[in-house]
TrEMBL record:
Residues 7-67 form the HTH tetR-type domain. Residues 30-49 bind DNA. The lineage of its organism: Archaea, Methanobacteriati, Methanobacteriota, Methanomada group, Methanobacteria. It comes from the Archaea. The keyword DNA-binding applies. The keyword DNA-binding applies. InterPro entries: Homeodomain-like_sf (IPR009057), HTH-type_Tx_Regulator (IPR050624), HTH_TetR (IPR001647). Keywords: DNA-binding. This is HTH tetR-type domain-containing protein.
Amino acid sequence: MAQVLKEDIRQRIYAAAVEEFYSKDYRNATIRAIAKRAEVPLGLVYTYYKNKQALLSAIVEPIFAMIKETMEKAENSNFHSAFENFEKIEFGMFLDLFEKRKELIILIDKSSGTEYGNAKETIINLTETHIKKSHQNKDIPVFNDFLVHIWANSLIEGMFEIIRHCTDRKSAEKMMELVARQYYYGIEGLND
């Protein structure tokens, strides 16, 4: 019974931290406010999490790791088209991210001043590498690095905008598909 209570307390602290970081960002959130939201004594938060940074890491690291792992998997796949690659690998990741939208928003928008402060740029860089690799053996003109950066930035920012603003999964799913279709077929169309 005590173990269940401990896990319940950990989950309450975690949930309170998500809400606090989401509403205030990392810099403005405090352990005191998190404890108050979780309805636990301040010292109890430190029993479960060493400090505010450790709490942030517990929230965003699984999200960041999933993105990096999915991008690596996508980069090493051999589907017929970039859009098919997106449909089979990356689309599922974005839908999973939608389910953890507050955690993702904390990672990309609200973790300035931490080791995750450049997470969005890292994700864009991974996407750039993926774009270059997925088109290197195709009969598409060589793109300059700046253009590839613009494409990667616009795709990732578009997906993040959907996650930021869509509140129901069905709408988000349709929007993601439309943005990806426009994006991938647009790049493929450059060969015409």
